Amino acid sequence: MGWSFPYLGKSGSGPGTRCATVGRVDDYRVVNQANWDERVAAHAASPDYKLAEYERDPRYIGDVVRFDLPRLGDLAGLRGVHLQCHIGTDTISLARLGARMSGLDFSGPAIAQAQSFADRLGHEIDFHQADVYDAADVLGDAAYDLVFTGIGALGWLPSIDRWADVVVRLLKPGGRLFLREGHPMLWALEGSEHEGLITVDYPYFETEAPMVFDEGGTYVETEAEFSHNVTHEWNHGLGEILTALLTRGMTVTAFEEHDSAPWNALPGHMTRDQAGEWRLTTNPERLPCTYTLQATKTA
């Protein structure tokens, strides 16, 4: 996952501020990559990524992967790839569960950090710098038993259909996609901590033009200041995601919506539980915050 949460205020305090203009689809990679490249060092140094825990305990599994342990099943010996892996902490968690992992991300500094950290921990993980849409060209067709994508990844992509093409190409016949993502309903919301309101301010469905945010900071604890603060982002409705997979011959084997998220998505409106998940303080059944989707490629 990399804690790459789209739409969040980069201070971690709520959704970002949308600019009056919309961005051009053809420059989103350059804009987003500059933003992510600049934040890698701060993320690796922040206690929120818990790199010290990974070093201290060789059995440590990150919170996001731990949440889905009952759904992941036995990964021993599976060839897996983590798309949009950022600095690789969830990739390492999956390797610790027995999978032979690769990781891919468009950020060179993120991949360098991920590879260095995995090597230091003694994990044989190969990390690759590439845009997710180029993943199959870089990694090979029908090469993987497992394609894993974590929370906050899909919102950086303009086309969910192109993403689904990549997933199908990467998977071996009978291979499995495992996706836990922020719910598109949650991504569509704006929360006001001061007025106590939650409003639907952002698109639920995929749009041709990106939403453009211009906000400093980042979503982890850090004193660092940044100069590349513009991001281009998209939402993708559940129907769009499911249809993209189904029309490419994937079989959906499990789909579960959750009333919790692993971060405080709506500050002032959410409470954290003992497992580290956040949900609405009052009547949490009102809002799906995340979902877990599994699908297999037809053998």
From TrEMBL:
Q: Name one Pfam family in it.
A: Methyltransf_12
Q: Report what the protein is called.
A: Methyltransferase family protein
The reply to whether Iron-sulfur figures as a keyword in the UniProt entry is: no
- An example molecular function term from Gene Ontology annotations: methyltransferase activity
Domain of life, source organism: Bacteria
Q: Where is the Methyltransferase type domain?
A: 82-177
User: Gene3D superfamilies attached here?
Assistant: Vaccinia Virus protein VP39
Q: Name one GO biological process term.
A: methylation
InterPro entries the UniProt entry points to: Methyltransf_12 (IPR013217), SAM-dependent_MTases_sf (IPR029063)
- What are the alphabetically sorted keywords of the record? Methyltransferase, Transferase
Species for this entry: Kribbella amoyensis
SUPFAM superfamilies recorded for this chain? S-adenosyl-L-methionine-dependent methyltransferases
